[in-house]
Backbone:
């Protein structure tokens, strides 16, 4: 079930495609054809809140918000 309070976004203008997010949670993130991060599930279940926080903190450019 999705959670309307979690809404994951990646700012493509600052994403460098390092893939930290994909390694943390491949069910939510993927590296796209443009070699930048993409969100597979923009409104994930609340069980992903901790991993989303970790991905946002570990992102070197802080491109991830949720």
Residues:
């Amino acid at each position: 079930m999705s959670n309307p309070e979690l809404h994951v976004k990646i700012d493509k203008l600052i994403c460098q495609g390092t893939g930290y997010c994909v390694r943390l949670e491949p069910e939510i993130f993927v590296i796209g054809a443009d070699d930048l991060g993409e969100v597979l599930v923009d409104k994930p279940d609340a069980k992903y809140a901790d991993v989303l926080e970790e991905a946002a903190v570990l992102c070197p450019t802080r491109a991830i918000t949720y």
In short: The chain has one domain: 9-65.
